[in-house]
Specification:
The chain is mainly alpha-helical. It has 14 helices and four strands. Strands 1-2 form a two-stranded antiparallel sheet. Mean pLDDT is 81; it is low at 1-21.
């Protein structure tokens, strides 16, 4: 990317307005009712427009050049990073022949804008999730996802970006718990990988697999326990005993965690239900992902304090 394009990108982001407050003046004084219905199976015009504007601000406007050689005005065209992402979208998302991808930006812009304006709500989410992984600059993708979450929260969408995926999770603390657990490194990376798999099963909009999402969430806790105890097989009771001894885990918390984990294993619990024909719901899988992520985060803190990992 040229220095001129970098400068243009920086200037664009510096001009970007801060997100608007959650409630407008008219809402605060009671002249306009705020939105009270979560956008679960639809997407209103305001949300579509906000998402399109974020695509413009982060991906499109900063990476379109008009005069790369200094010979006067030319028709805008996408520079390397944007052309690469558009080619990926053309080929893998829209399933179009690559030799039909226009050279210049305007017809590409019009095609993408028309899609975001008119496509079914779920396909718009498919597109922004895809584009934010196809674009080759990770820091731009991260900025885009962060601002998307602000917009999704403000417009009362039921979805948020978590670990690069759009998931039906609406509580900020739930998102933070999952993202913290997905960011484990070193020896703990395998635990994060299991939670990432659980998240992928949960967030697959065409064919979510709640059963395997729950299995992977529970397996992440088991993996953490195996690391703490140094055993090949997970043993939560042994891990909690070690933490009670070396990290001052309160006895009441130890009992609570044993009871919660036992719920996934006893004859009436979730793990048993996976084998007896019960079909887990989205809420079952989301609860287990959030609960196991928070549990993994807490076990990590205690284990580090006790120098067990």
């Amino acid at each position: 990317m040229s220095e001129r394009a970098v400068a243009r990108a920086t200037a664009t982001f510096s001009r970007s307005p801060n997100p608007l407050p959650m409630r407008s003046f008219s809402e605060r004084i009671g002249l306009k009712k705020p939105r009270t219905i979560v956008q679960l199976d639809d997407m209103d015009e305001a949300l579509r427009t906000d998402l399109w504007n974020l695509l413009l601000l982060h991906f499109f406007q900063p990476y379109v050049a008009t005069d790369p050689y200094g010979y006067g005005p030319r028709e805008p065209f996408p520079v390397d990073e944007l052309r690469e992402a558009c080619a990926q979208a053309w080929r893998h998302f829209f399933k179009k022949p690559l030799d039909t991808l226009p050279r210049h930006w305007r017809p590409i812009h019009d095609e993408l804008r028309g899609f975001v304006s008119a496509a079914p709500w779920n396909e718009v989410y498919d597109f922004i999730e895809f584009f934010a992984s196809a674009f080759p600059l990770d820091y731009v993708n991260e900025q885009f996802r962060n601002e998307c979450n602000e917009v999704l929260e403000r417009e009362m969408s039921a979805y948020r970006f978590v670990g690069g995926h759009l998931v039906r999770v609406t509580d900020k603390s739930e998102v933070e718990a999952i993202e913290d657990a997905l960011g484990l490194s070193g020896r703990l990376r395998a635990v994060s990988a299991q939670l990432e798999t659980a998240l992928q099963h949960l967030s697959a909009r065409k064919s979510p697999d709640y059963r395997n999402s729950i299995k992977e969430s529970i397996s992440a806790v088991e993996g953490m326990c195996a690391l703490i105890t140094g055993q090949d097989r997970a043993d939560l009771s042994a891990a909690l005993r070690a933490l009670e001894k070396d990290a001052q885990l309160h006895g009441a918390l130890k009992s609570a965690f044993n009871s919660l984990y036992g719920f996934t294993n006893d004859s009436g619990g979730i793990r048993h239900a996976l084998l007896d024909g019960r079909n887990p719901s989205h809420d079952d899988a989301k609860f287990m992902l959030v609960a196991c992520s928070a549990f993994v985060n807490y076990l990590k803190v205690l284990a580090l304090r006790a120098r067990l990992i």
